[in-house]
Structure formats: C-alpha cells, structure tokens
Amino acid sequence: MLIVAVGWGYVVLMMALAEALEPGGSVLGAIVTLLLYGVLPLTIVLYVGGARRRARARRAASLRDVDPGGGGEPPGDAVAPVREEP
C-alpha cells in the first residue's frame, strides 16, 4: 500500500511541476493540483487502508485492559504466611 502511495505522490509532484513551469501555468495552479490530486486522495486512501490495522490495535488494547480478577489489586499470594514466634 505504501509503495502505491509513494508512486502516486511522485506522479502528482511531476504534474504540479509541469503546471508551474509551463509557459501558461501558474504556481497557484500547481499548488491546487498538488492538494486536489495528491494530498486529499492520499489521505483518504491511507485512512481507509489502515482501518483493519486500527481495529486490530483497538481490539488488542481492549483485551490488555481487562482485569481477569476484577479486583484491581496486583496479584499476590492467596494465603498470607503465618508468622511463628521464637
């Protein structure tokens, strides 16, 4: 997925440079091209593409937060040791 995003970014950068350096082009047109063809679509695609990874991370975090004892106390000995007097 990342290689596709890098490739698309390269293509959009070349389009923006062509827009800026063309005799009838403008820098404003290059910025608009960069934003509308590059940044906006890439953010949407990368966000949607990372949905499974975010869901797995959220599920793993919720499983880590579960306290199996339910008491909130740290685990220790079940029976306190008996002290013997000398």
UniProtKB/TrEMBL annotation:
Biased composition (Low complexity): 75-86
Keywords from the UniProt entry: Membrane, Transmembrane, Transmembrane helix
Segments crossing the lipid bilayer: 30-49
Source domain of life: Bacteria
Stretch list, region Disordered: 61-86
Protein name in the entry: Uncharacterized protein
Organism listed in the record: Scleromatobacter humisilvae
